[in-house]
Structures are given as C-alpha cells and as structure tokens.
Design brief:
This protein has about 100 residues and is of the alpha/beta class. It contains three helices and five strands; from the N terminus they run βαβαβββα. The strands form two sheets. It has a three-stranded parallel β-sheet, covered by helices on one side. A two-stranded antiparallel ribbon has the order 4-5. The mean pLDDT is about 80.
C-alpha cells in the first residue's frame, strides 16, 4: 500500500470512514483488476494533494446481494471459516 493511503478493516471501518471528521475516498480494488492498477498511482497522488482535507482508504470489500439489495458487507480479510459463517448468516436471514 502506498504511503498516502490507509488500509481499513471491518474493525476500523466505522472509526476511519463512517465517523471521520473529514471526507473519505474509499478505493475498492483487486490485484487482478487492470483499471484498478491504472488508477492506483493517480489515487496516491491525489491523496498527497488532499492531505488534511480528504482521507484516502483502500480496502478489500465483499458484498452479498439478494434481489438487488445489499444484505451483507464484509470489510477486510478474514479466514475461510469466519467468512463462511458470515455468508451463512446472511443467507439465513433472507430465507
């Protein structure tokens, strides 16, 4: 991760993003994503230009959608079994 950006996890998302006193640009990306790689240096440059006015966060995020509605958002890394439990809980709540 570049110096001007910060990583967030599910544990820090609320404090770093939701409750941030300044605006936050969240960059959802993947290592295999060509356009993500292309925009990364631009986002990093802008993070420096907007320092103090805008936080730039890069995080891995998964979303579970049911009938077009986001029913579960999973932020940050977690082991397979923990992820399986979150998926099962989301599916069970939508039966």
């Amino acid at each position: 991760m570049a110096a001007g950006t910060q990583a967030v996890t599910e544990q820090t998302f609320e404090a770093e993003v939701i409750k941030s006193p300044i605006a936050v640009l969240v960059d959802f990306w993947a290592t295999w994503c060509g356009p993500c790689k292309m925009i990364a240096p631009i986002v990093e440059d802008l993070a420096g230009e907007y320092a103090g006015k805008l936080k730039v966060m890069s995080i891995p995020t998964l979303g579970i959608f049911n009938k077009g509605e986001l029913v579960e958002r999973i932020v940050g890394y977690m082991p397979k079994e923990q992820l399986r439990k979150r998926i099962d809980a989301a599916l069970a709540s939508r039966v």
